[in-house]
């Protein structure tokens, strides 16, 4: 009986590791190719399994894509939680590091989400998390009139967006350090740092 339970746990761990390899392979393919060009056979080969194994595990390419995005969004959310510090400057620094790792993938996921049934809803949850994180990480002056406060919150959310990072980093040609400085210059005048924003 104990041996059977041990064998089942071993099989479960093996199946979990196989699933992770498949998702890793899908993520690597998606990072470098349009979703429509990705073939199950190629993902399977990258993961060291057969196409049938991928289909048995995930059902279809779209379900595999959704599983991949859900896993990465969970990792991104955890990383973003870790990036929120007491110091706004430290939070901005970690936000830039976060986008150096995930920014291109986030933008690509949003742009290709309509191609995958169910993925726009997952992407929308990611956007909702981003908005809430911005509100918590960079609070604005509570004494502002509601309309002014909401406008300022919207500005903070826009500045913290991956699109803004891409514009500064690539369209604007800034390096990582310059991007951090630019975001600091944009954000700090908008947020409440120990009440210094009051009455603005």
From TrEMBL:
Naturally occurring in which organism (per UniProt): Microbacterium pygmaeum
Keywords: DNA-binding, Transcription, Transcription regulation
Entry protein name: DNA-binding transcriptional regulator, AcrR family
Stretches assigned to the HTH tetR-type domain: 16-76
Annotated DNA-binding residue span(s): 39-58
Keyword Repressor: no
GO molecular function: DNA-binding transcription factor activity; transcription cis-regulatory region binding
Annotated Pfam families: TetR_N
């Amino acid at each position: 009986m104990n041996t059977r339970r041990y064998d089942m746990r071993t099989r479960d761990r093996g199946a979990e590791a196989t699933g992770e390899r498949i998702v890793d392979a899908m993520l690597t393919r998606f990072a470098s190719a349009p979703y429509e060009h990705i073939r199950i056979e190629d993902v399977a080969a990258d993961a060291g399994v057969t196409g049938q194994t991928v289909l048995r595990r995930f059902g279809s390419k779209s379900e595999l894509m959704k599983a991949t995005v859900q896993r990465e969004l969970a990792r991104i959310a955890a990383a973003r939680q870790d990036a929120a510090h007491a110091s706004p400057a430290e939070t901005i620094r970690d936000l830039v590091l976060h986008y150096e790792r995930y920014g291109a993938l986030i933008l690509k996921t949003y742009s290709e989400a309509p191609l995958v049934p169910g993925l726009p809803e997952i992407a929308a949850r990611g956007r909702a998390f981003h908005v809430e994180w911005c509100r918590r990480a960079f609070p604005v002056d509570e004494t502002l009139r509601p309309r002014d406060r909401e406008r300022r919150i919207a500005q903070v959310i826009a500045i913290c967006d991956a699109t803004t990072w891409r514009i500064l980093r690539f369209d604007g040609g800034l390096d990582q350090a310059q991007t951090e400085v630019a975001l600091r210059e944009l954000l700090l005048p908008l947020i409440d740092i120990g009440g210094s924003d009051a009455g603005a």
